[in-house]
Amino acid sequence: MKLISTIRPLLALFVIIVTVLLLMMMLNLTNYALELWQHLQSLPAVFTWLVGVTVGTLLIPSIWVIWRILRPSAGTVREGAPEPLDEVSLRERVQQAEVSGVDIQEALHELEELGRRRVHGRIQITLFGEISSGKSSLIRALVPQAEAETSVTGGTTRELMHYHWVTAAGDELVLTDVPGLNETGGELDALAMEEAHRAHIVVFVCEGDLSRSEFNALKPLLALEKPLIVAINKLDRYSTEDQDAIRTRVRERLEQYPELQIVGITTRPAQTVVRQLPDGSEEEVLRTLPPLTGELEKALQRAIDGRQDLLESLRDNAIFGLVASKLDDAEAAHRRHTADELVRKYTRRAILGGLAAISPGTDILIQGYLGTSLVRELCAVYDVPARELEIEKVLDLSTRQIRKVLPLILAVAGNAFKAFPGVGTIAGGLMHAVAYGLIFDTLGTSVATILETRGELRPAPTSLLFREKLGEDLDTRIRSLARLALESSKDQKRQ
Questions:
Q1: Which domain holds residue 427?
Q2: Are 340 and 410 in contact (CB under 8 A)?
Q3: Residue 286 resides in a domain
Q4: How far is the C-alpha of 377 from the C-alpha of 125, rounded, in Å?
């Protein structure tokens, strides 16, 4: 505290000195400008004109250069910001993926479903919540003719169920009931989340204050950036003061989303009344009352009125994101399948090479043509530049790992052949063939994993992963490769 008390006067003195210096500089510049102007006035007009042109010639290009430097480029995209999606580019990408052999059915289905929903023009509303929150009861309250199943012990709504509803204002809506959180371990499953993308408005039904699982389930729904209404059900069980307290707690938990609407509903209200019996005694009877959904209906109407175009745009953008995500998954699956096929092809080649080798040696194969070709082709599958130096480094590091475990691999291979009747003692060449197969299977799998997860060929992580995978489930893998080696050996003899 003493140090701060000492610094404050010094800081104040520094500010005063800087202020005085700036004032003196401004006064000097003003005085200089006035003197220059007086000199120009005494000269002929042509000289004044020439001085003005010269100053302008110097200043204008300088100002333009400064403006160009400071002005953000029109084509500049904020770092980290995703490129905007549109239907035309997505359809082009779908076509390109189909030509490449990618399974495009799911992505194409979403685009077709979007087209169908555009045609009927109804507002799509998706209801989320735990199965005990009263989603199905809410649907029956809004649409009395709806036939939705309810259960207090478990979920019965596993399939998407749609209900047509015409509001008092004449708007056509479709209510969609999705699997409850209780059915999916407190998380939104893929079926429910996909329907959230397709919806114009999301309604999240809860019972009282939000639980941890409900709050976590809300996060991905809020990330869609479309209208979301939190409907607090069964408020008739609470006093007016408690109702206000519950609303306040929910609002506080969602304070970072001020545009979020929070409403109260009662889908199955009941009232306790006292009935007098013929013998003069009294009994309490629970009487069912009409549902109270007016607050929710008003919130929905506010979200719809005058915002149809905005709702359509938000829904379309969400679906475009879903299509892009499904394309990403399909392309990744296609790459994995192609990589697996490559690994199997080179594993078989390695086994055949081992059978044909006069003097087997892992160094020759792992550093030679087969190893280099395998890594290069895997890089091509994942669109990663195949640099020769990195390939050589991967093969060199992997070879070092092989030397440490080769005796163990050969020993396990020898034991594995004993499981095949009639084989007996196996020549070393056959065991080496199995070793080659194991090496290439592990190498290919490791390289593919690194390429997929890191997007580049990294020698050190690839070598570490190679070492880990080389010893995984060794006995089972070698038995499978031994079977392949025996089949390959028989094929060679027939030829």
A1: 328-494
A2: no
A3: yes
A4: 48
Cα distances from 274 to residues 282, 287, 302, in angstroms, run 6, 10, 40
Q: How far is it, in rounded angstroms, from Cα 469 to Cα 476?
A: 13
Q: 444, 438, 437: which is closest to 375 by C-alpha?
A: 444
CA distance 282 to 263: 37
Which class for 297: exposed (0-12), middle (13-18), buried (19 or more C-beta within 10 A)?
middle
Q: Are residues 49 and 125 in the same domain?
A: no
209 membership: H or E segment, kind and range: none
Pair (282, 203) in one structural domain: yes
- Residue 239: CATH number of its domain: 3.40.50.300
Instruction: Render each residue's pLDDT in the chain as its tens digit; 495 residues.
Output: 444 455 666 767 777 887 878 778 877 777 776 676 666 666 666 666 666 666 666 666 666 555 555 554 433 434 444 556 788 999 999 999 999 999 999 999 999 989 998 888 899 999 998 877 888 888 888 888 765 433 333 334 456 788 888 888 888 899 988 877 766 555 567 888 899 999 999 999 988 888 888 888 888 999 998 999 999 988 878 888 888 898 889 888 888 888 889 998 887 755 555 566 676 676 655 556 667 888 999 999 999 998 889 999 999 999 999 999 999 999 999 999 999 999 999 988 888 777 765 444 544 445 467 889 999 999 999 999 988 888 889 888 888 887 777 767 766 666 666 556 555 545 555 777 778 888 888 899 999 999 999 999 999 999 999 888 888 887 778 777 777 777 766 665 555
Query: How buried is 426 (Cβ within 10 angstroms: 0-12 exposed, 13-18 middle, 19+ buried)?
Result: buried
Alpha helices per DSSP H over 43-81: 45-70
- How are the residues of the chain apportioned to helix, strand and coil, as percentages rounded to the nearest 5? 65, 10, 25
Task: DSSP for 108-174, please give it.
Answer: HHHHHHHHHHHHH-PEEEEEEE-TTS-HHHHHHHHSTT------SSS----S-EEEEEE-TT--EEE
Q: Domain check: are 346 and 275 in the same one?
A: no
Name the nearest CA neighbour of 328 among 109, 77, 104, 84.
Answer: 104
Amino acid letter, residue 325? S
Q: What is the pTM of this model?
A: 0.68
250 CB burial (10 A radius; 0-12, 13-18, 19+):
buried
The answer to the question of residue 116 being in a domain is yes
Q: List alpha helices for 223-265, DSSP H.
A: 240-253
Residue 413 neighbours by CB under 8 Å, 6+ apart: 431, 434, 435, 478, 482
The answer to the question of residue 361 being in a domain is yes
Establish if 84 belongs to a structural domain.
no
